[in-house]
């Protein structure tokens, strides 16, 4: 994210020491096309080459050690895979082995016995003797005898290494470039921010991130570059949010008779404080005269639907219509059935539109929507089709947003050209705050962080496959009490066949152990009609155990199901485990989640299982998930906004992000167009970033 000027757009092949062939490699392997790209190819760690260690000081915890000494002799031993060159290296305090498995003949030719070298590598203990495998090795010279600097280690590929483009080669290119570039580097952050957060100037930061004189410099440089990156990321998102707000008016819904009536006469429970707070937030948006774009996050079972419904009442009270879009027929049907009970009490006309709605019913529906006599429409994707026209659509709710794209959101907008409907996206996949700020920075966010009173928390346990008999005994008891059970198997695309086999084996074993119990089976290879049929049987309590892959619906509500067994739990991510667990715990009974695994488990897996057993809080789980997996995996999609980040890490840089966001907000609050003199430079830089982003998309 360097200043866009001709200098930084110079093609990388023109850099001294690169040339056309290496340039091609850099293009292909690292996406480095220009000088600017190279400067932003940040090292991911550094090795301390500033000091020497004695062999007598080595220990296994050292990430790497630099030693000055003499290579006494070497031998080549072993056959095939195990063939290796082993050298004896001493420094007067002790002796270690240097080991090479690759490039043996090259080293035999170029190393000299009884010559002095500097080596660097990670010491490993074998018996009582240390060895370093594939050390960096350089002949001792007058220049390197007193130690070097912190050496950058860059992301590389195998192909680059084979062509001798290693971290050192990159580092040499970067140094050459920095020497020329320094006079061209302009400061993209205003002085006020540099002072407020004590940030290093840009040019210094670029030098120090690549070639830090000390570790302290490296830390300061990294913080500074992360801040800049996140500051511009937030600036862009907040700016587009402001623009949207100013550009698009929204209908004003200020009458609340219906809401009052519903509240006083029909609401079967007290709303939680979190639900009330969110309703106030929505109500404020509805009165603002601006179009609302809001994300409603709430854990499974937190009661998002009733909030959506009460907000619909605000729209209807003011002469507008509302719709709710769900990702599947089953979910649409459940929402329809649930809301119809309330709508009937209030004399509101509610309809359902899905792919399987018959033509006749459809015609009537279309007409009622168009003449305004139908106030609420619940449906699937079917409701965004162009033939579906409303008289005055004022409010759209999208449930379980991760299955809907931005494109679909905008098609809903277009359902009311005169004045776009307010939009609320609901998701049960909690996203950590840091991630939400970048992923959904252009939406307003509401959070329901409280479950309705009286819910019994789901009891979660981890069991090994060896204890299956006990598990089946437990399931029998629960079924005898009238409950239903889910048994879920993983489904990962690469090994679909294997998964299907696991599922079928599981189904067989369950059928044998529960001969008198009606079962359902559900997996991705089934026709969608068959899936719906099986799911419906389970919903109606005709079957007691649902053996399924993860295709079972997010958000489906079977209050009578009280046990969730997750097979091969080690193969699921945390959020996914939590989502699946959310299928139970919806009724009055105590619910259980059983995580089944093999004995052998990685450390990460243990942490996931331990987290699941410890807490039911989706936000807490999301934080751990972000820590374990990093932001890219967590969202599951290549959402822009996080994939652009080159140096900041959303899992770790929450504190910097917060500062950057506050700074961006403060600046935009007083000068939303960035049009006053102190902010003109910021605007210019922001625009230059936009341009280089388009370049990126062209390339990749
Ligand atoms: P989700 O947020 O997962 O979509 P739902 O909206 O389906 O959750 O709500 C789950 C259940 O909780 C529903 O049966 C709903 O009627 C009930 N519910 C919602 N809010 C409350 C409340 N404040 N008190 C008691 N029950 C509630
Ligand atoms: Mg829901």
UniProtKB/TrEMBL annotation:
Stretches assigned to the Helicase C-terminal domain: 474-632
Residue ranges annotated for the Helicase ATP-binding domain, each copy included: 285-448
Any idea which UniProt keywords this protein has? ATP-binding, DNA damage, DNA recombination, DNA repair, DNA-binding, Helicase, Hydrolase, Isomerase, Nucleotide-binding
Q: Which family, according to the similarity comment?
A: Belongs to the helicase family. RecG subfamily.
What chemistry does it catalyse, as a reaction equation? Couples ATP hydrolysis with the unwinding of duplex DNA by translocating in the 3'-5' direction; ATP + H2O = ADP + phosphate + H(+)
Cited InterPro entries: ATP-dep_DNA_helicase_RecG, DEAD/DEAH_box_helicase_dom, Helicase_ATP-bd, Helicase_C-like, NA-bd_OB-fold, P-loop_NTPase, RecG/Mfd, RecG_dom3_C
| The organism of origin for this protein | Salmonirosea aquatica
UniProt xrefs under CDD domains = DEXHc_RecG, RecG_wedge_OBF
As for what it does, the entry says:
Plays a critical role in recombination and DNA repair. Helps process Holliday junction intermediates to mature products by catalyzing branch migration. Has replication fork regression activity, unwinds stalled or blocked replication forks to make a HJ that can be resolved. Has a DNA unwinding activity characteristic of a DNA helicase with 3'-5' polarity.
Q: Which Gene3D superfamilies match?
A: Nucleic acid-binding proteins, P-loop containing nucleotide triphosphate hydrolases
Molecular function GO labels: 3'-5' DNA helicase activity; ATP binding; DNA binding; hydrolase activity
**Would you tell me the protein name for this molecule?**
ATP-dependent DNA helicase RecG
According to its UniProt entry, one GO biological process term is: DNA repair
Among PANTHER family, the record links this protein to: ATP-DEPENDENT DNA HELICASE HOMOLOG RECG, CHLOROPLASTIC (PTHR47964)
């Amino acid at each position: 994210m360097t200043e866009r000027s001709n200098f930084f757009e110079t093609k990388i092949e023109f850099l001294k020491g690169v040339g056309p062939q290496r340039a091609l490699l850099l293009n292909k392997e690292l996406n480095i096309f220009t000088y600017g790209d190279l400067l932003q190819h940040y090292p991911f760690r550094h090795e301390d080459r500033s000091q020497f260690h004695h062999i007598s000081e080595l220990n296994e915890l050292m990430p790497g050690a630099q030693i000055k000494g003499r290579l006494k002799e070497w031998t080549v031993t072993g056959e095939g895979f195990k063939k290796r060159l082993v050298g004896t290296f001493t420094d007067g305090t002790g002796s270690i082995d240097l080991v090479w498995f690759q490039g043996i003949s090259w080293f035999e030719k170029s190393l000299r016995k009884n010559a002095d070298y500097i080596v660097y590598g990670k010491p490993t203990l074998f018996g009582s003797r240390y060895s370093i495998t594939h050390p960096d090795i350089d002949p001792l010279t007058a220049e390197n005898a007193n130690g070097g600097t912190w050496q950058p280690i860059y992301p590389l590929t195998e192909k680059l290494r084979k062509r001798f483009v290693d971290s050192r080669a990159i580092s040499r290119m970067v140094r050459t470039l920095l020497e020329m570039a320094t006079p061209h580097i302009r400061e993209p952050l205003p002085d006020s921010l540099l002072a407020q957060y004590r940030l290093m100037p840009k040019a210094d930061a670029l030098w120090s991130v690549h070639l830090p004189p000390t570790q302290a410099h490296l830390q300061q440089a990294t913080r500074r570059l992360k801040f800049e990156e996140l500051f511009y990321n937030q600036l862009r998102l907040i700016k587009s949010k402001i623009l949207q707000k100013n550009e698009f008016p929204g209908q004003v819904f200020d009458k609340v008779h219906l809401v009052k009536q519903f509240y006083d006469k029909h609401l079967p429970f007290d709303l939680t404080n979190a639900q009330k707070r969110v309703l106030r937030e929505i109500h404020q948006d509805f009165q603002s005269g601006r179009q609302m774009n809001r994300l409603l996050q709430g854990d499974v079972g937190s009661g998002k639907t009733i909030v959506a419904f009460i907000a619909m009442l605000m729209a209807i009270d003011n002469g507008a219509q509302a719709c709710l879009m769900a990702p599947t027929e089953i979910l649409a049907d459940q929402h329809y059935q649930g809301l119809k009970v309330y709508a009937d009490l209030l004399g509101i006309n509610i309809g359902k539109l899905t792919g399987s709605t018959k033509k006749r019913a459809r015609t009537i529906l279309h007409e009622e929507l168009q003449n305004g006599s139908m106030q609420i429409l619940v449906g699937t994707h079917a409701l965004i089709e162009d033939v579906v026209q409303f008289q005055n659509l004022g409010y759209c709710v999208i449930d379980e947003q991760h299955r809907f794209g931005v494109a679909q959101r905008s098609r809903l907008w277009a359902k009311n050209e005169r004045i776009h409907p307010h939009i609320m996206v609901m998701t049960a996949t909690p996203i950590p705050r840091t991630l939400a700020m970048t992923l959904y920075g252009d939406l307003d966010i509401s959070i329901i962080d409280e479950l309705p009173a009286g819910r019994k928390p789901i009891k979660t346990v981890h069991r090994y496959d060896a204890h299956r008999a006990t598990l089946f005994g437990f399931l029998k008891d629960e079924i005898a009490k009238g409950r239903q059970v889910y048994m879920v198997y993983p489904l990962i695309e690469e090994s679909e066949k294997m998964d299907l086999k696991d599922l079928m084996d599981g189904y067989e074993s369950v059928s044998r152990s529960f001969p008198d119990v009606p079962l359902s089976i559900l997996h991705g290879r089934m026709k969608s009609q068959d899936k719906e049929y099986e799911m419906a049987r389970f919903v109606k309590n005709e079957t007691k155990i649902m053996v399924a892959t993860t295709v079972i619906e997010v958000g489906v509500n079977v209050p009578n199901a009280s046990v969730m067994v997750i097979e091969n739990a080690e193969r699921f991510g945390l959020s996914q485990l939590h989502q699946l667990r959310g299928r139970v715990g919806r009724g009055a009974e105590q619910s259980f989640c059983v995580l089944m695994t093999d004995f052998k488990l990685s450390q990460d897996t243990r942490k996931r299982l331990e987290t699941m057993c410890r807490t039911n809080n989706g936000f807490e789980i999301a934080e751990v998930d972000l820590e374990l997996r990093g932001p890219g995996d967590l969202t599951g999609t290549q959402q822009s906004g996080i994939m652009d980040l080159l140096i900041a890490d959303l899992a770790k840089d929450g504190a910097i992000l917060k500062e950057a966001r506050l700074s961006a907000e403060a600046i935009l609050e007083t000068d939303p167009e960035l049009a006053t003199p102190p902010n003109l430079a910021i605007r210019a830089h922001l625009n230059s970033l936009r341009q280089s982003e388009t370049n990126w998309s062209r390339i990749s």
